[in-house]
Specification:
The protein has about 150 residues and is α/β, with parallel strands linked by helices. The protein has one domain: D-tyrosyl-trna(Tyr) Deacylase, Chain: A (3-Layer(bba) Sandwich). Helices cover about 20% and strands about 40% of the residues. A hairpin with a 2-residue loop joins β1 and β2. The N and C termini lie close together (about 10 Å).
Length: about 150
């Protein structure tokens, strides 16, 4: 399971003209699921994201977590995080999870994150527009298999 985590001062996601999720200070999580991910991968990333010390303290050092600041998370499914671009010019998505499996783990991720902090989300398999103000900017790449 992979995530791109962006610290934001605000963000929203729309499907067509409908806002399906919006947050104030917190993180946007672009979440990709691969074919061999399990609940263990979900648990790892939920814990990691909720506790990453990426928010400034009173000395302006990145020392506080999403939980510390009582921030929010906007979670967006993004299978393209498993696009393999090493060969040719067209990404291969052969290691992305099937839509059914990906949706199950995406929904589980959302539910587990909701147990910790306020969460908004996009719509699985929809064409979405994500609007955000990346604060910092701070953008981090996470992989539950610790490939990077």
């Amino acid at each position: 399971m992979r995530a791109v985590v962006q610290r934001v001062s605000e963000a929203k996601v729309t499907v067509g003209d409908e806002v399906t999720g919006a947050i104030d200070e917190g993180v946007v999580v672009l979440l990709g699921v691969t074919d061999n991910d399990t609940e263990k991968d979900v648990n790892y990333l939920v814990d990691k994201i909720a506790n990453l010390r990426i928010f400034p303290d009173h000395e302006d050092k990145m020392n506080l977590s999403l939980q510390d600041i009582k921030g929010e998370a906007l979670i967006i499914s993004q299978f393209t995080l498993f696009g393999d671009c090493r060969k040719g010019r067209r990404p291969s998505y052969s290691h992305a999870a099937s839509p059914e499996r990906a949706n199950d783990l995406y929904e589980l991720f959302i539910e587990k994150m909701k147990q910790i902090l306020p969460v908004a989300s996009g719509r699985f398999q929809a064409m979405m527009d994500v609007h955000l103000v990346n604060n910092g900017p701070v953008t981090l790449l996470l992989d539950s298999k610790k490939n990077f």
